[in-house]
Amino acid sequence: RVKVLEALAAGKAVVASPRAIEGIGVQAGEHLLVADGNEETAAAIVTLLEAPELRSRLGASARAWAKVI
Predict the structure, then answer these.
(1) Is the dihedral of CA 21, 22, 28, 33 positive or negative?
(2) What is the pTM of this model?
(3) Which partner from 9, 27, 44, 56 sits 20 to 30 angstroms from 67, CA to CA?
């Protein structure tokens, strides 16, 4: 979970498993993408690679969330 928190605080677009974000208080689709399993994770990464505006929005939202906590 520390790595997820560090990436969020750095304003990076994050793909994480449901278990990795348990108890953190972030919202899927608002602060990061959540994927369960290899295929979902790969698909989420491809989505981020193909959508720079989504990467930027998630990163900015994650950074703003991290500043508040």
Answers:
(1) positive
(2) 0.93
(3) 44
What torsion do the CA atoms of 13, 10, 28, 45 make, to the nearest 10 degrees? 20
| 1: Cβ contacts below 8 Å, ≥ 6 apart | 20, 21, 22, 23, 24
> What gap in Å lies between CA 47 and CA 23, rounded to an integer?
25
Q: What is the CA radius of gyration of the chain?
A: 11
Q: What is the mean pLDDT of residues 54-63?
A: 98
- Bridge partners of 36, per DSSP, are none
Q: Which of 56, 44, 53 is nearest to 15 (CA)?
A: 44
